[in-house]
Amino acid sequence: MYISIVFLPFLAAMLSGFFGRALGVKGVHIVNITCLFITTLLSFIAFYEVILCNSPVSVELFSWINLEHLKISWSFYFDELTVSMLIPVLIVSLLVHFYSVGYMGEDPHQQRFFSYISLFTGLMLVLVTGNNFLVMFLGWEGIVKCLKLYNNFIFYLIIFLFPYKYKKLLIFLLKVIIHMEIRKKGIYERISLHNIDAISIIVGSTLENL
């Protein structure tokens, strides 16, 4: 059950991205909303088991890095804080999916949009449930990459919709606006350019040789 909470949004994203044309617009809506709805219900069950029954759960899928003094696994941990964060994240994401059905009703590329938004939700769950800093870091970086993918999709759409003489100006203005919005929302407030320094400190402290 706990693995399903994390991977159902990824399943919806894959089905929408790879089989969007076969499913159709309504099929993509049904797949994404159903997966998110089931994930939300499972998060309430997890809330009951972890908090009310006082039974935190740790799920280890496989060993990722296995050295002599450094062992990192692809694992997830569901404690009181995690399940408390899962419920608002999934409820808001489910409401966004419902709202997007009407808001994106006239968009010709709804399959791709719902694939990106489900991928974004799945990466949020990886960030929330990751059992070590490396899994959490990948979830956070994946969120940023997902936003960049969607922004690039918007740029390509503009290229085909607008006359050639206005393309460069429109793309430049959109890049400025999106960059300002991302900066305002704090998306880039992460390790950024100091990745190698932070990783050196983490690995060095793990090896007891800071």
Fraction in helix: over 70%
Order of helices and strands: HEEHHHHH
Compute the number of helices. Answer: 6
Mean pLDDT across the residues is 76
Q: Please summarize the sheet with the most strands.
A: 2 strands, antiparallel
What oligomerization state is this entry in? Answer: single chain
Model regions low in confidence, pLDDT < 50 over at least 5 residues = none
Q: Identify the strand order in the major beta sheet.
A: 1-2
C-alpha end-to-end distance: 39 Å
Q: What form results from the Cα inertia axes?
A: globular
Structural class: mainly alpha
- Proportion of residues in β-strands: 5-15%
Radius of gyration: 20 Å
DSSP summary, beta strand count? 2
Count of discrete domains: 1
Kindly summarize this structure in a few lines.
This protein has 210 residues and is mostly helical.
Per-chain topology:
Elements (H helix, E strand, L loop, with lengths): L1 H51 L4 E10 L4 E8 L1 H24 L6 H20 L3 H29 L2 H22 L9 H12 L4
Structure, described:
- The structure is a single chain.
- By secondary structure, this protein is mainly alpha-helical.
- It has one domain.
- It has helices spanning 2-52, 80-103, 110-129, 133-161, 164-185, 195-206; strands at residues 57-66, 71-78.
- The chain has a two-stranded antiparallel ribbon.
- Helix 1 packs across helix 3 and helix 3 (110-129) packs antiparallel against helix 4.
- The radius of gyration is 20 Å and the shape is globular.
- The mean pLDDT is 76.
